[in-house]
Amino acid sequence: VPTVQDSEINLLRSGDVTLAVPLSVEDISQFGDGSRELFIKSSCYSTINITVADCETTIGWMFSSEPRSISLGVVYRESSDSDVEQAKVLIPLTRCNSHKEKIQGQVKARHPGLYTLIFDNSFSRFISKKVFYHLTMEKPVIYDGSDGP
Questions:
Q1: pLDDT tens for each residue of 109-119
Q2: Whole-angstrom Cα distance, residue 34 to residue 49?
Q3: So what's the pLDDT on residue 1?
Q4: 3-class DSSP assignment, residue 149
Q5: Model pTM?
Q6: Which long-range contacts (CB under 8 A, 24 or more apart) does 85-88 make?
Q7: Residue ranges per structural domain of the chain
Q8: CATH number, domain 5-136, options 1.20.140.10, 1.10.150.130, 3.40.50.450, 2.60.120.680
């Protein structure tokens, strides 16, 4: 019996990856104000893999692409050792007109684990893309009951 599988999981399992960038919360906290560049070959995808240790951390992103649009999706796995088929799709792959305007978004990390931003260019047979991205991380403020310094 064939199983129905999310296109994101299918892409991660059998698609052609250009780059996989591993980042931690500490890496993102030292990001600064600038953008970083991610290259995605034609008919391929690239990922940013963010390891999150604390629940309720919010991962934010802003990106643009050249020369045309790109698709973005977000998936979650308990760890990098987890099987790709065990991944949960948090944001389905969505085509973004990021060549015309910056795209912003965020996801709240409900569980510790690996959060993967997928930049998919598999729909473009001939044109490679560059994505210029900036990431942010917000940890929850935990009130400890003290009011003094």
A1: 999 999 999 99
A2: 19
A3: 46
A4: coil
A5: 0.89
A6: 85/5, 85/9, 85/13, 87/8, 87/9, 87/12, 87/116
A7: 5-136
A8: 2.60.120.680
